[in-house]
Specification:
The structure holds four protein chains of four kinds. By secondary structure, chain A is of the alpha/beta class. Chain A has two domains: 120 residues, Glutathione S-transferase Yfyf (Class Pi), Chain A, domain 2, CATH 1.20.1050; 144 residues, Rossmann fold, CATH 3.40.50. Chain A is built from eleven helices and eight strands. Chain A is globular. The N and C termini of chain A lie far apart (38 Å). Chain B is of the alpha/beta class. Chain B has one domain: Rossmann fold (3-Layer(aba) Sandwich). Classes of the chains: A alpha/beta, B alpha/beta, C alpha/beta, D mainly alpha. Chains C and D meet through strand 24 and strand 25 of C and helix 2 of D.
């Protein structure tokens, strides 16, 4: 399995997202080809600055992938996902605009193909990786899977921009299923898709605090050991934000706990980069 | 030369499509003036020769609107109509006439907006096809 | 068929319909155009042709100027054809010598451009003139009717209609698919705005229905088919096996006490209680006879040998071998009273229905509050305690493009009722969240004011979400209701113990199919379509078929009862004459032209065409023919013709329209 | 001087109103039934001088100018909760984006608002390097809002110990072409000093 991968600007400096995804796909035998010379998608900023510019930024990313023979691109960031997917939808609806875009892109010898697609890394793990491969890798993981992960309670957190406004994630409880599949226990809570406020967190830390708190509370009230996320902005925001909310529940990437289940070492998964560290007994599973 | 104003007759059933047309009227949903309605009790009473007659008399398009399957006031007149319209269509086609000039659609009594849509759309279709050559074709 | 040989002398009358036509159509131009048409002797225009001066215009011209054909260019024939046909008759010419040109619905109201509208009107008039010249006089017959009414649905609407019709001396058959009549109203405790107890006004009605000499009730039954036509419908009713003999059963209830499978969710209690496999939905059920729900019965459904109910039944009424039974009845009229179902709020994830146990639908709350309900009428939470704060959420599934766009009409008022009852019974603090309070009805606004004065918080804002994540730790275990108070422009986050979702109304399951049985259509939302939004609210396009209650659209009890009485009134008016006029626009086969090919016999949906072996021709049975014209459409010799829709008439209309 | 009987609503010049109503989803706000679901669902409505519902009401009252200078536009976190729940299926977020573009274009951002400066820092970073680097955005933004920057120093240190402080910019190879694509990036209003929004 190989895919064109769009890291987005926050990916590399994120707390072990890159490390864990790289490690996990290595074990699963998946290849992610980073889109060469990819550019920023403009995130939630540019659509508010200039829609035209946002279109071009997005179109360029897709065309670069197309040039390398990929119609579909994979990203690990919710903000990139929604920005790029919206670009796709707008372009697909406006043929005239596509021509204009292509005219502009031709300077770089690029062409936008409106059959382009975008998916999130979790969709690859949840829908493309065959059951058999999971069972094989998890049971006989590199160093043998540690016992007792099923005693670890994981609170899933989707964030906003993967699920909304489309509401068509299939299956809708993809993250829960994946967490269970790799042997952890999910805890249900009502803050799974509540907004964490990452996009305003820097200028408006104070105003963003309640958003962070209600999500963390959702996990805490349900006795979760860790929260797991699918987006560098969510992870960073929920991780650093707890300094002010007086809580300290570790916020990991879904790829990191999958990595643990595959028997990878916490360091390979960049778990040491979290601001709030995951406790030993969680890392090694609970036997009792 | 002046712009092409097609002649379109819509033979519609009293219970569904004609009622929908009334509803479109009451709701002031405008549609092209080219449409002329002929009210029949049921599409099932449409003799293929009515359709041919219409084209011979210079119709550029013939629209037939009846009840949705299952809603026919006379049990299954609409289903019978569907078959006959097909027959008429194939006959006319043999004389080299564009099948799109004849359309049969189900429009329920409460579907005023749908009626408007169909009328607009069908008129566009006919406008695109231009004047019907049917008469000449049939004479040959 | 009387053939008229005289030459047509036509009068054309163009109606202004106030400004409805005149504002778009140049009526004078249309009039002048008509004057130039063949056989037209008189052409006039008038402000309102349907008014009596308008009609007199026609009558006088017929008498004085010897007109024998009339064309009125005005509104839809579905509106006033009858009016003008009567005028023709009054003046002494056949009502069939009339033709209407619909220049309002078909022109002035739908054509933006004045010239286009006028041009179209001219053509429609010309076509009507061409057609009317070829009209023939037709004769009609009177046939006897069956003086009985079929009523589908035994809720308050069905019962009201039944009692009204029965009092007028008509025989009535009620078909109810549930084990008891009573419908939704039987589930209510109090009714707005007067707060009188539903049971107190309901139970007597149920009893009088069951005891009325003119009313037969088939519960646990469904209508299988309806054939025939106005005055003489043939109805087949399927009685589902009850497995209990209605004759023998005394309704003692021992079977229900003894039945071992007690864990079945009670439909009547909205799933808040459990029932047995042999059950009667509620204490005042009519009839008292219980039914065995075969699916959940150990013996019938699970193949066990149980048989306990049979053992304990002293009346020996249990009969496990009962089969579905079919009853054929004749009815002169049919009244639909199939009611509604409550909207299921599960899809609105943000309200947490089915996820938070203290979120209830309005119907669940009706049961919770009902003296015969799970808590014997004391409002308690699942933990057995009364709630201290309650939120009532309006417009759940209503006024929402994702679900139902329409306003369900009853929710505002029943929500007010809930608020009052909550205050009254528990003293709880009540928060109502509404978009707009709709209280049009006698004493409704007053009731709204009363509830306000009782100190209920009425917040203008639709609830955004309901969450179990509290703002303050002390609120753990409570539900927080979040909404903008649009009047203070503040976002409220109200911790409450209980939430009631005021769910909207939807057409009852399966009503679509039941409607098709008698050719009743449904609108975009699934409600039955009435004949005319204003002038035919209880009639349908199918003669002799009427609508009562919520099956036609959301309604409260007073409106339902009113409409039910009206529907019964229509049925009485129809049947009291004893006969109905057969339609004149039926098929006739010309014996001289018929080649005896029998094609028509094959296509007739009413088996109205028989074959005369001796003369080798087909014959139409006037009593059975409905005038659909299928035979005419296929007749190779054109010997089959539908009166008033003959080839000749239709072709001339077409020809003129296209000239 | 002109006599007035009380506070008059700002008259919006018709062009402004039309350019909004003619934008892709502009006319959708005419459907709004003012139920407040959007405002109630908005995680930042408490910070807004007009939550989305109020904003739409303003626009329908021809108070376009006031709508464009409201801080609402700059508190939208693009979480799309409003769109998901709106019973009239109004694409609230997209409409806010449109208004934000108009505000940027006409420079009607209220002074003292922090978000426009953050946007400027972000856009500047993107325009120069084709990619953005958090630390650099922070630096650029910090110049205008030293307090925020100071508050973030402990975090910055912590990130360094976690080897997560990238201070060299990430960038694309082909920066000139990207710069060529981008027609516009926001000119932040001169926000003299720190007025909290």
């Amino acid at each position: 399995m190989k895919y064109a991968f769009y890291p987005g600007c926050s990916y590399s400096s994120a707390a072990g997202y890159k490390e864990s995804v790289d490690a996990v796909i290595r074990v699963l035998g998946i290849r992610f080809d980073e889109i060469p010379d990819w550019n920023c998608c403009g995130a939630t900023v540019y659509p508010g600055v200039s829609e035209k510019d946002t279109m071009l930024l997005g179109a360029r990313v897709f065309s670069l992938a197309n040039k390398n023979g990929y119609l579909e691109i994979i990203t690990g960031c919710n903000a990139c996902y929604s920005t790029l997917r919206k670009v796709l939808e707008k372009l697909k609806a406006d043929k005239a605009f596509v021509e204009d875009v292509n005219r502009r892109l031709s300077v770089e010898g690029l062409v936008f193909d409106d059959n382009s697609k975008i998916r999130h890394v979790i969709e690859v793990f949840a829908n493309d990786v065959p059951e058999a491969l999971w069972t094989e890798k998890i049971t006989s993981g590199h160093k043998g899977t540690r016992p007792g992960f099923n005693k670890i309670k994981v609170a899933p957190y989707y964030g906003c921009q993967l699920t909304r406004p489309w509401n068509d994630l299939d299956p809708a409880d993809m993250l829960e299923q994946l967490i269970e599949k790799v042997g952890f226990t999910t805890v249900d809570h009502s803050a799974k898709t509540m907004c964490c406020g990452a996009s305003l967190a820097v200028p408006h830390a104070k105003e963003t605090r309640p958003l962070i708190k209600r999500i963390i509370d959702g996990a805490v009230y349900n006795k979760a050991d860790i929260v797991t996320t699918l987006c560098p902005l969510c992870q960073f925001n929920l991780d650093q934000g707890q300094a002010a909310t007086g809580t300290a529940i570790p916020v990991t990437y879904f790829s990191q706990i999958i990595g643990l289940a595959l028997g990878l070492e916490p360091e390979e998964l960049g778990l040491d980069k979290l601001l709030i560290r995951v406790k030993k007994d969680v890392l090694h599973g609970r036997n009792n | 030369m002046e712009e092409f104003r097609p002649k379109i007759v819509a033979m519609v059933c009293n219970w569904c499509t004609y009622t929908a047309a009334d509803l479109a009227g009451t709701s002031r949903l405008d549609y092209p003036a080219e449409i002329r309605l002929v009210r029949l009790m049921c599409t099932g009473m449409i003799d293929p020769k009515y359709i041919i007659k219409a084209f011979l008399d210079g119709a550029d398009g013939v629209f037939i609107g009846g009840c949705h399957p299952g809603d026919c006031h006379y049990i299954d007149g609409n289903i019978k109509a569907e078959k006959r319209v097909k027959a008429a269509a194939s006959l006319l086609e043999q004389f080299g006439f564009e099948p799109d000039r004849l359309q049969l659609t189900w429009i329920g009594a409460s579907e005023g907006p749908e009626f408007q849509e169909h009328m607009k759309h069908f008129t566009q279709t006919i406008n695109a096809l231009g004047p019907s050559q049917t008469r000449e074709l049939m004479v040959l | 068929m009387a053939v008229t040989t005289e030459k047509p002398v036509i009068g054309v009358y163009v109606c202004h319909c106030g400004m409805n036509i005149a504002s778009k159509v140049d009526t004078e131009a249309v009039k002048n155009h008509a004057r130039g048409l063949q056989n037209v002797k008189v052409a006039e225009e008038y402000k309102f042709m349907c008014s009596s001066p308008g009609q007199d215009l026609i009558i006088n011209d017929i008498k004085k100027k010897g007109l024998n054909r009339i064309v009125v260019a005005s509104c839809s024939p579905r509106m006033h054809e009858i009016t003008f046909r009567k005028a023709c008759e009054a003046a002494g010419i056949s009502k069939f010598f009339f033709q209407m040109a619909n220049i309002r619905e078909n022109s002035s109201w739908v054509t933006p451009d004045k010239d286009d509208a006028t041009g179209k009107a001219k053509e429609l008039v010309a076509a009507a003139v061409a057609r009317v010249s070829h009209h023939k006089d037709l004769s009609t017959r009177h046939v006897d009717v069956t003086k009985s009414v079929l009523i589908i649905g035994g809720g308050i609407a069905g019962m009201q209609a039944a009692l009204t019709a029965a009092e007028a001396g008509l025989k009535v058959v009620i078909v109810e698919r549930e084990p008891s009549i009573g419908g939704h109203m039987a589930k209510f405790d109090k009714t707005f705005p007067t707060l009188d107890c539903a049971a107190c006004i309901m139970t007597p009605k149920m009893v009088s229905v069951s005891q009325h000499e003119n009313i037969t009730v088939h519960t646990w039954s469904e209508v299988e088919s309806i054939t025939g036509f106005v005055g003489n419908f043939k109805v087949r009713v399927k009685k589902k096996p009850r497995y209990v003999d209605e004759e023998k059963c005394t309704g003692c209830g021992v079977c229900m006490e003894k039945c071992p499978s007690k864990k079945i969710t009670s439909e009547f209690d909205e799933g808040l209680t459990r029932r047995t496999a042999i059950f009667s939905p509620f204490p005042q059920a009519v009839p008292k006879t219980p039914v065995i729900d075969a699916k959940n019965c150990l013996k019938l459904g699970k193949g066990k040998k149980c048989g306990i109910c049979e053992k304990f039944c002293e009346a020996d009424a249990i009969n496990y071998d009962q089969e579905p039974e079919f009853v054929d009845i004749n009815a002169g009229a049919v009244i639909y009273a199939t009611g509604f179902k409550a909207f299921d709020p599960t899809p609105l994830g943000q309200y947490g229905y089915g996820r938070y146990q203290e979120v209830y639908t309005s119907l669940e709350f009706e049961r919770l509050n009902n003296a015969t309900g799970p808590t014997s009428g004391s409002i308690l939470m699942k933990n057995g305690k009364p709630p201290e704060t309650v939120a009532i959420v309006h417009c759940v599934g209503s006024r929402d493009k994702k679900y139902n766009t329409y306003c369900s009409r009853v929710c505002c008022m029943y929500s007010m009722k809930f608020a009052h009852l909550l205050k009254d019974k528990t003293g709880a603090e009540v928060w109502e969240f509404y978009i707009d309070v709709r209280s049009p009805g006698k004493l409704y606004e007053e009731f709204y004011n009363r509830v306000q004065e009782e100190g209920v918080h009425l917040v203008r804002g639709r609830v955004a979400e309901i969450t179990d994540i509290p703002d303050e730790p002390e609120d753990i275990g409570k539900l927080t209701v979040v909404a903008e108070n649009t009047l203070t422009m503040k976002t409220l986050r109200v911790p409450v113990d209980m939430v009631i979702l005021s769910v909207g109304l939807e057409p009852a399951d399966g009503s679509d199919d039941v409607g098709k049985l008698a050719g009743v259509q449904t609108d975009g939302d699934g409600w039955f379509s009435e004949l005319h939004a204003k002038l035919g609210p209880v009639s349908t396009p199918s003669a002799g078929v009427y609508l009562a209650g919520c099956c036609q659209g959301p309604k409260d009890i007073p409106d339902t009862v009113a409409q039910a009485s009206a529907a019964a009134g229509e049925a009485i008016a129809l049947l009291s004459k004893g006969t109905v006029e057969t339609r004149a626009e039926i098929s006739h086969i010309d014996p001289d032209l018929c080649t005896g090919c029998k094609t028509c016999i094959g296509v007739c949906a009413y088996s109205a065409i028989s074959f005369d072996e001796s003369l080798n021709i087909a014959r139409v049975n006037d009593a059975l023919c409905q005038g659909c014209g299928s035979c005419a459409a296929v007749c190779p010799s054109s010997s089959a013709q539908v009166g008033h829709f003959t080839d000749n008439q239709v072709m001339h209309e077409l020809e003129e329209l296209l000239s | 001087m002109k006599h007035s009987y009380g506070k008059r609503s700002m008259k919006t010049d018709p062009e402004l109103r039309d350019s909004f109503y003619n934008s892709p989803h502009g006319k959708d706000i005419l459907r709004c039934i003012q139920c407040g679901t959007c405002s109630g669902s908005c995680p930042y409505s408490d910070q807004m001088d007009y939550a989305p519902r109020g904003l739409f009401a303003l626009i329908r009252d021809n108070e376009m100018a006031e709508a464009l200078s409201s801080n609402t536009l700059w508190f939208c976190s693009s979480c799309y909760q409003c769109i998901e729940r709106c019973p009239q299926e109004i694409p609230v977020t997209d409409i806010v984006y449109t208004l934000k573009q108009m505000a940027v274009e006409m420079n009607t951002m209220p002074s003292g608002l922090k978000m426009p400066d953050f946007y400027a820092a972000f856009a500047d970073n993107l325009v120069h390097f084709g990619r953005v680097t958090e630390s650099l955005i922070m630096a650029k933004y910090g110049v205008k809002h030293p307090l925020d920057a100071l508050k973030n120093i402990p975090l910055a240190l912590k990130l360094m110990t976690r080897k997560r402080m990238d201070i060299k910019p990430q960038m694309t190879k082909n920066r000139t072409s990207i710069r060529a694509y981008l027609e516009r990036h926001p000119q932040p209003p001169d926000t003299s000093g720190e007025k909290n929004s």
